[in-house]
Amino acid sequence: MDPSENNTPGSHDEETQGEHKETQSQSNQEEENETVPLIESGAQADAEPKVITENAVRVAFLPPAEEADLPISESLVHGDASYSADDNSSYSDNEADIDQDIDDALDEGYMGMECTLERGFSLNEAAIARDLRYERYDEVAVKYERSHSFSKYQPSLKHFIPVRKSSAEKDEMPLDSTGLYGFVSYSWITSLMWKAYKKGLKEEDVPICSKYDMCDYNTDRFEAMWNEEVKRKGKEGASLQRVVWRFLRTRLIMALTFFMITLIMGFVGPTIFMRFLITWLSTDEPVTTGMIWTAGLIFSEFIRIIIFGVVWSISYRTGVRLRAACLGLVYKKLMRMSSLGNKSIGEVINLFANDAQRIYDFVVLGPLIIGGPVVAIGGVIYILWLLGPWALFGMLTFLLFYPFQYGISRLTGYLRRRTVTVTDERVRMMNELLTCVKLIKMYAWEKSFTSSITEIRKRERHLLEKSAYVQSISLAMAPTVPVIAAIVTFLAHIGAGYNLTAAQAWSFSGLSGQIHFGMDCITYCLVSIREGQVSLERCKSILLMDELEPYLKTPQEPDTAVVLDQATLAWDAVSSFKKKKKKKRRNKKDGITPADQLMPKVVDLKHIDVLFDLCLSIKKGELIAVCGSVGAGKSSFISALLGHMRLQSGEVYLQGTCAYVGQQAWIMNASFRENILMGEAFDAKRYYRVIYACNLTQDVGAMPAGDFTEIGERGINLSGGQKQRLSLARALYANRDIYLLDDPLSAVDAHVGSHIFQWVIKGALRNKTTVFVTHQLQYLPLCDRVVYLREGKIAELGTHSILMEDNKEYAGLYRTHMETVENQEKESKTEETDAGGRQRQDSVISGGSSLNGYQKNSPEKSPVKEVKKKPEDGQLITEEKLEKGDIPLSTYNWYIKAAGGYIISTLVIFTFAANVGSTAFSSWWLSMWLSAGSGNTEVVVGNGTVISDNIADNPDLFMYQTVYGCLILVILGTSLIRGFAFMKTTLKASSSMHDQVFVKVFRSPMSFFDTTPSGRIINIFSRDMDEVDVRVPMTMETFLQNIWLITSSLVFVCLVFPHFLPFLVVLAILFLFIRSIFRIGIRDFKRMENVSRSPMYSHVSTTVNGLATINAYGKQEMFTKKFMVLFDENTCVFFLFNCAMRWLAIRLDLLALLVMSITAILSLILRGSVEASFAGLALAYAAQLSGIFQYTVRLSTETEARFTSVQRISNYTKCLASEAPAIIESKRPDPNWPKYGRISYRNVQLKYRPDTPLVLKGITFDIDSLEKIGVVGRTGSGKSSLGVALFRLVELAGGSVRIDGVDISDLGLEDLRSRLSIIPQDPVLFIGTVRYNLDPFEKYTDEAVWSALEQTYMKEKIANLPLKLNAPVVENGENFSVGERQLMCMARALLRNNKILFLDEATAAIDTETDSKIQRTLQEAFKACTMITIAHRLNTVMACSRILVLDDGKVVEFDTPRNLMANPHSAFAKMVAAAESSIPL
What pLDDT sits at residue 820? Predict the structure, then answer.
């Protein structure tokens, strides 16, 4: 067969026409004997084109004769014997030919799907490289094995071998094979830093995560310890913090031991060597003595720097291991649950986004808190010895600081917990917004959602401000405490009449640098500990959630598949009242919208029974149909068999493996093929048979990269029917024993549904046990038995014929259905004229715009045509751009403007200068005082007078004391002013940035949401906002403070030793050289870390949404493995970023050591020419420089690295395109517009994105007032695009649409969309209350809302809920059935009562009886409306005023149903005829 011949529009019509000219008997004969394979071999390519009918599909799947014992791959699509007695003989005759045809087609590469490429996820070279990289993790990984021997420490102890030869592979983490020198100096990362400087870093340059830091290894170890803890202490008594201690205690003790050595070295330097050196400066001792003290000072500082590097080396790895272990365990816990219970998706994503960092900080910074007490105790002892008991007054300052810091930390922890709750709420709301963004835009509900997000953000900012002020006081006070302590100590000492020498004063000041460090430790460590504890508690709350108790048992009878024995089952339901009222009152006090007040903040779990006393036994190979009205418990029945509910009483037995097709298909963001395979091995023949069986042949053929085409998140670029058939294909390919199908035919038309029922449910699954939930009663006579559910109980059970004889409720329902079944089947929902019977493309809501664009590439291409397609053509999701080079000045400029402008920012910077200047001035004043000495005062000694050497005898003592004492108030005042001013401006900046990026993202066109994963957007609003809210201000505050400290230090050194200036120039050049080179690597690592988070968040979100499917297929291990790899990728760059910072720090510390060395040597050389008091001042500040200099340079790099988050937000704000304005004041329509509802399309041309072809090609038609229009057409004909054009989801490429004579392109989007109504195919409910879902703006009275619910038959259901209209609706509306959700969406449209209604097959998940009632409601309630219905059930179309037939984006026919049916050659008449042939007999 020549594929091209079968694909022109003309040939298609001719074939169909020819087909229907034949008599019914000929059709029946063909049904038995037609042997045309769907795939032709090469030898048949020149043959005449043949009609590809459903019969051809049947023959294409010929199974071997012995199919009963063969797997699904061989028995696929085997028709039931009841259809034709000759089927088996037909199969046997043609089996060999068909198999040969399929083999030949596979060899040639069917539909561009090269079978040699079995990597379904790979769309391009980058993706293939990424897959290969992921595979390396399996090769490198080591499995955790419990060991009590000392050998478990061997990998870590090897780092203490002085030099080791690297034996690692090029792509493995070099740290694992480094020796002591590399471990201490971080030289193992040098090659990466150089590469970053020369070429910039790419993904492939980064080594894979160390095998000892991998998520899998650490999770297994942590899980073993956690299980032991729970076993030993029980769930209530289990302590996650105790498990954390066991997990890291050895490494922690080692790190703290080394940290103690650094503290000792830091203490010895100023207290011994510096004091003796300053004393030596004012004596006549030999130079060698001075040289010994100088060498000792330099050596002690050198040892401190080196050992401190070891501390960080150990702590960084400990931190990433605990981080991986905690979150890996949380993910594994999620895998063992069927739902999140009282947790939201936003809360879970926030856990992975923000709590990961806090757990890491908890390990890295928390233990350093011991530095504060150690330094304080050492300092007290030393000062008592040095200055006597009066010094205790100064020590009181330190001692008082501890309870102050403790109070601050408690307050910080409390505020953090409150902030996290609000942040969770915001992220959850953002996640919901992104999930439902198309619907929100079409309803013009942006204001409501913007208001909700704004209110939540306002509360979050309020708490952030409180937290920031508290932390700012803490940060501002910490560096001033040593200075104030020195002032109090010296004043008390001198006031008591004691002398104070330069050696004593500057030895104490040098020590105050160490005390300062200890105070900083307390500040940061307490914050890290409190936040870490909060994060661990959040992890624990998930780990302690009740898992579902496994209740499925194996039946004793070998031929039994399923047994329910008096089984009563319940769901975990949420309750938003009774508990934690205090918290709710507090939330109200914070100021929230009325809608928010109704939204449940705190939810408790309870169990609600939904299935009662079920008794049923299903034999192997039996086909059981389950039917019942909306909310009867049909989906719960399926969940009960999956083991996803709670068994309250009775027994449930199940034998064999399960495949599950949910009522709402769950689709992964992966290739089409990967969605079907779902981790199974690729078997080409089995795979293509599944494609045919599920009627996906043409779908795949029309995709730009065949089955390598990427499917967006939630199947955004597939229609509802395509998603359902893809889900069915996944189940079929899985080849399981029991098939649980939850209304799989609801989203497909009758023709396709009939095909799937015959060739999948009755064919491929003929020897499988199948439980088939459906509302389509025409299939029930063909099932072995029928279960009729009513209110969660089995009301009737038996064969269809017996139930009809019983003449009870089921029989009545079926007869009601049969009154209209002929119309419903003859006038079925089919829209395609080809016998493949394709499901319509892209419903306006469920389908995304993108694939519609794909279809237009080759709208008439046959599935058999061999087209070479590049995998990269099918890439939908855009790669996240990895920024290169410096952070542009425009980013800093944007941040400054967001903070209030240049004047405000300059004033804030000067508050830092005033604060640091006051502390520096206190030191200078002390030097002046020490230099003045006694002021040449003579004192009587014995019988004579001598000049005193005691500064207490200075005649100006009062002046010196007064000025020195007043500086305490100045320092405290400037500290507080600085803290408040800085935090106010930075929070103003972050809030302004959040508001800007939120508005920009929300106002983006739909194409942005189609091509951008939600994980990437959530990354902006969770982790990046957390960086800007908390991390950037903290880093920047310390950085600005230290800049001024360094400036004052260098000024003092240069004033005392002008000879230092030439050295300073050289050192400055060295500093700038190192920083300029290696900040590039640090910045690149940070950018990579930012980008590596998004896939992880997306994966977590996908997992949570698909828990039921993942558990049903037993794919927990596959998804856990994928998560582990994604987490390891993030861990790797996160670890390298931190190590790169420390690499820079240790080198800058060594350079800063040169500053102190040069100062000490200069004081040695210039003894006598410089006063000891000023030499001591220079030495004290030079010693202080050693720590501060590197820290500040590192902070500047870290600040720049953290500004990548600002840059990302800035890029979104500046680069995203926006939709048209919501309201254009000069073009506002009349309040009553549209008055008549006339719609006019004039030469309308539409394309979804600039790089896609036209989907509407100059269509022109008019719709009169109050007309009811049905829209039909084959896949990709442009039906849904009419709605896209009408709602202006995409702006027209040409032409115009007018409503009541008004060009809609002139109007604001809110004015347009708020005047239109849509009832979507996929029902969408938001978190909140029932009333909030129906009326978010609170425009309507309760009576109107109840009336709408009554018309949609939901009044009784809502009235029976405890809170009625204020009853909670959980995420995705999971506490309502799909049918109930659809009815609520209908009530929403009834309330709006607009003049124009767009109906997008809104009754798919509703039972027939309710559907007929709804149809009457629609006819009555919308009598005064213009209605456009995208046809799915043709009985609704036949009742329309006129029918619009589209093909290839053009109008083919537009006339009344009567006129179109009168012409047998009309496209519409052919569709009806084609539908008739597909009705089950």
Answer: 58
Q: What is the DSSP letter of 878?
A: P
Q: What is the pLDDT of residue 949?
A: 67
pTM of the predicted model over 0.70: no
CB 256 within 8 A of CB 367: yes
Tokens of 284: 């006549």
Pairing of β 1316-1319 and β 1256-1263:
unpaired
- Residue 570 pairs with which residues in a beta bridge? 609, 646
Helix ranges, 776-843 (H): 800-806, 809-826
Give ∠ CA 170-174-180 in degrees, rounded to 5: 145
* Tokens linked to 443: 């309803």
Map tokens 């804030």 to a residue: 908
**Coil, strand or helix: which one is 486?**
helix
The β-bridge relationship of strands 1450-1455 and 1442-1447 is antiparallel
Find out whether 683 and 584 touch, Cβ atoms under 8 Å: no
Scanning 269-286, the segments in alpha helix (DSSP H) are 275-281
The radius of gyration of the chain from alpha carbons, rounded to an integer in Å, stands at: 38
* pLDDT greater than 70 at residue 879: no
* 120 neighbors 707 (Cβ within 8 angstroms): yes
Query: In this structure, what token pair is assigned to residue 1278?
Result: 């442009």
The CA distance from 836 to 697, in Å, is 8
Residue 254: exposed, middle, or buried by beta-carbon count in 10 A (0-12, 13-18, 19+)?
middle
> Strand 658-661 to strand 738-742: parallel, antiparallel, or no bridges (unpaired)?
parallel
Conformation bin of residue 1299: beta by default, left when phi > 0, alpha when psi is -120 to 50: beta
Tokens 């339901």, located at residue: 573
Distance CA 713, CA 725 (A): 17
> pLDDT by residue (tens digit) across 1134-1179?
888 888 888 888 888 888 888 788 888 888 887 767 777 777 777 7
967 and 988 in contact (C-beta within 8 Å)?
no
What is the spatial distance between Cα 725 and Cα 723, in angstroms, rounded to a whole number? 6
Query: Is there a contact between 1083 and 1204 (Cβ–Cβ < 8 Å)?
Result: yes
Q: How far does the chain reach from its first CA to its final CA, in angstroms?
A: 32
In contact, 1096 and 105? CB cutoff 8 Å: no
Tell me the per-residue pLDDT of 189-244, one tens digit each, with 9 for 90 and over.
888 888 887 877 777 778 888 888 888 889 988 888 888 888 888 888 888 888 99
Structure tokens that stand for 1097 in this block: 């968040």
Give the pLDDT of residue 771.
Answer: 92
Other Cβ atoms closer than 10 A to 158: 15
What own/partner pairs with CB < 8 Å and gap ≥ 24 does 859-862 have?
Answer: 859/702, 859/1276, 859/1277, 859/1448, 859/1449, 860/7, 860/8, 860/9, 860/12, 860/1448, 861/3, 861/7, 861/701, 861/702, 862/3, 862/4, 862/6, 862/7, 862/52, 862/698, 862/701
| Whole-number Å distance between alpha carbons of 20 and 149 | 81
Inform me whether the pLDDT recorded for 857 exceeds 50. no
Q: To the nearest whole number, what is the mean pLDDT of the chain?
A: 75
CA 582 to chain centroid, in Å, comes to 31
Helices (H) and strands (E) in the chain, counts: 52, 24
Strands 769-773 and 738-742: parallel
Nearest CA to 592 out of 1365, 1328, 1334 is that of 1328
Q: Output the CA–CA distances (angstroms, integers) from residue 208 to 216, 246, 417, in the order listed.
A: 14, 27, 35
Which helix (H) or strand (E) element contains residue 1454?
Answer: strand 1450-1455
Q: What is the pLDDT of residues 489-546, one digit of tens each?
A: 888 878 777 777 777 777 777 676 666 667 667 777 888 888 888 888 888 888 888 7
| Short-list 514, 517, 520, CA closest to 1180 | 514
Question: What sign results for the dihedral spanned by CA atoms 738, 744, 750, 756?
Answer: negative
How far is 1082 from 1420, CA to CA, in rounded Å?
Answer: 67
Asked if 1126 and 1019 touch (Cβ cutoff 8 Å), the reply is no
